[in-house]
Amino acid sequence: MPSRVRVWLNRTYAENVFFMDQLRRNPSDRAVEIHATHGDPDSPVLAAADTAELEPEGLSPAAYVEYALDQCARRGIDVFVPRLHQAAIVAHRAEFAAAGTALLAPTPEAVAVFEDKAVAYEAVRSVGVPVPPWHRVRTADELLAAVEELEAAGHRPCFKPAAGAGGVGFRMITRAPFSLAHLTGFPGPYVQLDLVEEALRRADEPVDWLVMPRLEQPEVSVDCLTGPDNRVRLAVGRTKNGRRRGFTLDERWLAPARLIAEGFGLHHLSNIQFRMLGDRPVLLDVNTRPAGGLHQLSLCGVNAPWAAVQVALGEDPGVIEPPFLGQDYTVVSGPRPLAPAALPRQRVDSEVLLPAVPVPVRAASAGEVLPL
After folding, report:
1. Helix 108-115, helix 117-126: angle, nearest 10
2. Most exposed residue of 61, 91, 122, 201, measured as fewest CB within 10 angstroms of its CB?
3. In angstroms, rounded to a whole number, what is the distance separating the alpha carbons of residues 355 and 22?
4. Residue 192: beta bridge partners?
């Protein structure tokens, strides 16, 4: 009987409870034990894991690597899926390998390129992938010059941090004066140019933003699984247009995604996002980690998390073609159990094999997909 696989997810997104579910429902009928750590005791990934711990706060990247190596040795981790301090962790891949742990993460060089969006845009443009026009700004004067240039070209300017993830810090710029109209309904992404300028001039230190055109839908996120030989094993696009979601194998999106994944060493799972600039797709962002919506590929008959674990373990699944493309769908929220308020749950007997069978049916969970 194949041995149990122990997988660790550190301080990850709540949606990765579905990543964990798919590992347990793997088509190889392999027993999987999942360890999770987080800084928030109410993270649902702690409750969904077999063993869980709260992470210490305030660790430097170097200290976090030491903490991670200790976790891997103490927990007998076979595959580590790092999100927090990914750059520092992948720089020590050999030390994790010596401890018997495979990292489900790209090369240090790939992480370094895509940590900074300006560096990333320059890099992918050099290999022929279209990118939007962009300006790196750090001062109010640079912001005004960038906005005026984009507006003169007929674009609607927006800005976001040069380093960041998940849309944090994204704002769209408007010249409309602040009024009661901006206080009705729900808060939106628009911010007045004069307020941004004033805030920058009063700031004690410079910002580091990219100012670029507002790109249009559809947004297509291509989930890629790439082996250590730089060959893509899986590439499927997830489309987003308002509430409606779907899937695509259109080469307009997949070809540039493969070029990026294979050309820059985006080993294991990555997510490469595109949007429209006029009538052509351009790169929006590159995530060197599994996307929060990766589990949605299950609607195409694909278990991407398990295929990625196989690659990490050296068990190459070969090229994976979705047997079908699922129907269009939307995403709704729902309840998910949490651990007791005192401490995250721990398994007592760590040597008992987990049954490799589907977990019991639960109520609809946060981020669960439903057909339209």
Report:
1. 110
2. 201
3. 14
4. 174
**Strands, sheet with 280-287, edge to edge from the N-terminal-most edge strand:** 280-287, 268-277, 216-226, 232-241, 244-248, 329-331, 369-371
Beta bridge partners of 212: 158
**Token representation of residue 170:** 């994204």
Closest CA to 81 of 20, 130, 131, 28: 20
The single residue listed with the structure tokens 């269009």 is: 328
Q: Report how far residue 319's alpha carbon sits from residue 234's, in angstroms, rounded to the nearest whole number.
A: 6
Q: Grade residue 360 by pLDDT with cuts at 50, 70 and 90.
A: very low
The rounded distance, in Å, linking the Cα atoms of 51 and 347 is 6
* Residue found by looking up tokens 């987080």 in the block: 38
Contacts of 360 by beta carbon, 8 Å cutoff, 6+ apart: none
Compute the C-alpha angle 233/236/237, nearest 5°.
150
Beta carbons of 304 and 289 less than 8 angstroms apart: no
